Amino acid sequence: LISRPEASQFIIDELVGGGGAGTGVTQAARHRFGCRVVERLIERCEAHQLQGLIAELLPDTLGLSTHQFGNYVVQHVLQYGSPEQQRLVSAHLGDALHVVGSDCHGCAVLAKALMHGSKDMRSALARKISNSEGLTPLMARTRHGHVAVKLTLQLLEDFPDAMMRVRRELEANMHLFRNSRYGRFVAQALAQVPVPRSASPIGAAGGMVLSGYAAEQQKPAHIDTDSTLQRVQEATLGGA
Question: Cα 89–132–137 angle (5° rounding)?
Answer without folding.
Answer: 105
